[in-house]
C-alpha cells in the first residue's frame, strides 16, 4: 500500500470533463470525471457526471447498488426529481433511468459495473 496521501488525492478541478462512452456507446450530453479508479476492478468506482440540459442515461441496473449525490441542478430518477443537496441510495437490482431537463452535476459511487437493459 502506498503511504503517501498525495497518491490518493484527485484534483478534479485540474481534470477535463470527458464524454461518457461505455462499451463503445457515446451518451450524448453526459460527461464524466473519474475520482477513484480501482486498479483491481479495472474501472472507476467513484465518478462525477455532468448532464447537459435534456441529456438522458438509459434504463439500467446496478447489481451492487449505487449512491448518488446531486452537487448542482436537478436529475430525474424514476419520475422523481432530485435537487441540489439530495442523496439517493439505490439497492442492488434497482432498475431505473436518469434524465436532466435543466442540467446537473452528480457524484456517483458505483461498486460494480452498470448493466444497460
Could you explain how this protein is built, in words?
With 117 residues, this protein is mainly β. The protein has a single domain (5-116), classed as Jelly Rolls. 0% of the residues lie in helices and 57% in strands. It has no helices and 10 strands. It has strands at residues 18-22, 25-38, 43-51, 56-61, 66-77, 80-83, 87-90, 95-99, 104-109, 115-116. Strands 1, 2, 3, 4, 5, 6, 7, 8, 9 and 10 form a 10-stranded antiparallel β-sheet that branches. The protein is globular. It starts with 17 loop residues before the first strand and ends with a strand. The model has no long low-confidence stretch (mean pLDDT 95). This is Anti-sigma factor. Pfam families: Cupin_7. It comes from Chitinophaga flava.
User: Any idea of the CATH class?
Assistant: Mainly Beta
N-to-C CA distance: 37 Å
Number of helices: 0
> Structural class of the helices, strands and pairings?
mainly beta
Tell me the domain tally: 1
CATH superfamily: Jelly Rolls
Order of helices and strands, N to C?
EEEEEEEEEE
Protein name: Anti-sigma factor
Domain ChrR-like cupin: 8-107
Organism: Chitinophaga flava
Pfam family, one: Cupin_7
Can I get a quick summary?
With 117 residues, the chain is mainly β. Helix content is 0%, strand content 57%.
Task: Please tag this protein with its features.
RmlC-like_jellyroll, Jelly Rolls, 117 residues, 0% helix, globular, ten-stranded antiparallel beta sheet, Anti-sigma factor, mainly beta
